[in-house]
Amino acid sequence: MPVQIYQVDAFTDVPFAGNPAGVCMLDAPKDDRWMQGVAAEMNLSETAFPVPRPDGDFDLRWFTPAVEVDLCGHATLATAHVLSETQILVPGTRARFHTRSGLLTAGRDGDRIELDFPATPPEPIEAPDGLLGALGSAAAYVGKTRFDYLVELQNATAVRDAAPDFLALKRLGVRGVMITARADEGGFDFVSRFFAPGVGVDEDPVTGSAHCALTPYWAAKLGKTEMVAFQASKRGGTVYVRLVGDRVRLAGRATTVLRGEILV
Fold this sequence. Notes:
Helices cover 20% and strands 41% of the residues.
């Protein structure tokens, strides 16, 4: 039987912006090699593989073109969008995803989809050898989360203009590096970019999981728990964030740009 697959632009309502994710709708689990092959074939930063459970929940895994990852925001948002669009997710209910990062939920909030993810606040550290040189920037702060380095730069212009050495970043041995600064334009609280050459993605256009760290970081700095973030990649995307205890609510829009079938 052919397997249904979608390509969804997440954290945007405009096609060909935001972060494209694959969503491969499975009826039953597939082996890891097959899923990795599909993700490599899609060649997107992540492809999600939801599998329905008997209790109505879903198992959910995410693969880059190179490896499986523990947490992915934009592909989870894309999955919830497909479940809603295909009416698998009943209006007014939240999808429940069992993942390597625990139970995650997602549901519609007006014209946005809201995700409930664990907060991953950074701990301050000394910059490891090679980090700032690879970024080519001075740092106002360096921290490390469970997954990534978080580096605050001097201003938003430095974030937008950064041209990192991806080979040097890959040698750092972490999933990714996020750079961030206070926003310099109305309507946004902070800006960021995210680089993950260690898992096969030089720059991720809009990174939901990075905002699990950015949200508690900027909430403490700005003294507010509800903010609007902009990821300043070439495609760009807006993430509405809210800190609720040790959880982060991430909301954004999505649009489907491709529907197809996998024949193998």
